Amino acid sequence: MTVQAGKLRHAVTFQKPVITNTNGEVTTVWTDKAKVNIAIMPQGGREAYRAKQVHANMTHLVQARYTRELEALTSVWRIKFGSRFLNIVAINNVDERNIEWLITCTEIV
Fold first, then answer.
1. What is the dihedral of CA 84, 3, 69, 57, to 10 degrees?
2. Considering only CA atoms, which of 67, 55, 62 is closest in space to residue 90?
3. pLDDT tens digits for 52-64?
4. Domain-by-domain residue ranges, the chain?
5. What is the pTM of this model?
6. How far apart are the C-alpha atoms of 86 and 24, rounded to whole Å?
7. Do the Cβ atoms of 33 and 16 come closer than 8 Å?
8. Which superfamily does 5-108 belong to?
C-alpha cells in the first residue's frame, strides 16, 4: 500500500502530553510535536446513556506518512484537528516498512 498525496488533505497537529507536578498538583500540558497532512476515514460511532447523560464517540482510521517527527509516536499522544481532538488507540506501521502509519483513533463527541 502506498501513500497517495491527494488523500492526505487534512492538516493536523500531533500532540504529546507533558505531565508536571507542582506542589503536589499534577497537571497535563499538551505540546505540539509534528504538523502533518493526513487522511481521516470515519469508521463508525455509538451513543451510550449513562448517569442520565448521553455520551457519544466516533472511531476514525487515520492514514499518515511515516516521518522522523512521528518516530516516537505512542498511544498517549493525540491528534488536534481544528477544534477537535482524536485520541490515539492503536498504531500500525504498515508492513513495518517505515513508510505509512495507520492509526485508530476515537473522538468524544
1. 20
2. 62
3. 777 678 899 999 9
4. 5-108
5. 0.85
6. 29
7. yes
8. Bacteriophage SPP1 head-tail adaptor protein (2.40.10.270)
